[in-house]
């Protein structure tokens, strides 16, 4: 079977703040920006991976979610309990410095992990946990 990841989704509560982080700080490019009714989906991705995209979407974008489910998702996002993504970088320390200099709080300083990578962690403006890993040479 030949499978490749094409898209993943990250919940955000403010697309403009999210775009500053993902585009201006991390260097991803905007690939699509779609609004429908009172919702918005923005697709971003790395110029190095044109076939992989991250869709920044409202936490309550599922049309089948009940009002209670939507409220619960918004509360989980506000608490920083929704998962984000793990990005690969050739220089974890430089990326951590760039993100820190942009004013974002570091959750974990770059460190060598026992499972063979060097990584660090930040939260995006919506509170999603993002990890950045560097594989050893």
Separate helix tally: 3
End-to-end separation:
30 Å
- Report the strand count: 8
Low-confidence stretches are none
Helix proportion of residues, in percent?
10-25%
Q: What does the radius of gyration come to? A: 16 Å
The major sheet is characterized as: 4 strands, mixed
Mean pLDDT: 93
Q: Given the C-alpha coordinates, what overall shape results?
A: globular
Strand order of the largest sheet: 1-4-3-2
Sheet-strand content, in percent, reads 35-45%
- What is the structural class? alpha/beta
Instruction: Spell out the helices and strands N to C.
Output: EHEEEHEHEEE
Plain-language structure description:
With 137 residues, this protein is of the alpha/beta class. 25% of the residues lie in helices and 36% in strands. The chain contains 3 helices and 8 strands, in the order E-H-E-E-E-H-E-H-E-E-E. It has helices spanning 15-25, 67-79, 92-101; strands spanning 7-11, 29-36, 39-45, 53-57, 83-88, 106-112, 118-123, 129-134. Strand 7 and strand 8 form a beta hairpin. It is globular. The two termini are 30 Å apart. The mean pLDDT is 93.
Concise description?
The protein has helices at residues 15-25, 67-79, 92-101, and strands at residues 7-11, 29-36, 39-45, 53-57, 83-88, 106-112, 118-123, 129-134. It has 137 residues and is of the alpha/beta class.
Supply database-style keywords.
single chain; 137 residues; alpha/beta; four-stranded mixed sheet; 3 helices; 8 strands; 25% helix
